Amino acid sequence: MRLSGIHDAKRMLDVGGGSGAFSIAFAKTCPELRAEILDLGAVVPLAEEYIREAGLQNRVRVRPGDMRTADFGEGFDLVLLSAVCHMFGEDENRSLIQRCARALVPGGHLVIREFILQEDRAGPPHAALFALNMLVGTEHGNTYTEGEYRNWMEEADLGTITRPDPEGDVIVASKSD
Predict the structure, then answer these.
(1) Burial 90-119, CB ≥16 within 10 A → b, else e
(2) Could you give the 3-state DSSP secondary structure of residue 158?
(3) Which active-site residues does the annotation give?
(4) Is pLDDT of 158 > 60?
(5) Which of 5, 110, 120, 149 is least buried, going by the fewest C-beta atoms within 10 A?
(6) What is the fold of 6-175?
(7) What is the mean pLDDT of residues 164-175?
(8) Are 89 and 144 in contact (CB under 8 A)?
């Protein structure tokens, strides 16, 4: 899937980026990209090992921090939230998306990769089952609908919200120029 404008990104923030798999993949695909992974301190050594193995230590770095409280910084062309939002309740996601939007440059993109429920919350089956898992396994976690993500993005003054594959797990918004 090719997402318009994202391949031109020069600076990327991967919030809760874990092992760095997505940052590494983006850096390999986009030769001008510099990526920063923000994740808990315990995860940093693992991500740094994978980055070294990929030979990208001069373009991908890891910063320890809790995504719920850390300063994201600013000046990013691309912010990625991959498999993060399901851990949080609505208010935490609203805040998280607002903070991501503030970290973007005008014209920058927020990409969310997550299980996305249909508006009636009954499917697709994998997203509905994962919602049940979050209900049982977390205090506030859940899966959310495209409409909920759109509302949070609009509240954060993000626009041009698209879902490249209507059945897929990615939703993208851009910050106005």
Answers:
(1) eeebbebbbbbbbbbbeebbbbbbbbbbee
(2) strand
(3) 86
(4) yes
(5) 120
(6) Rossmann fold (3.40.50)
(7) 94
(8) no
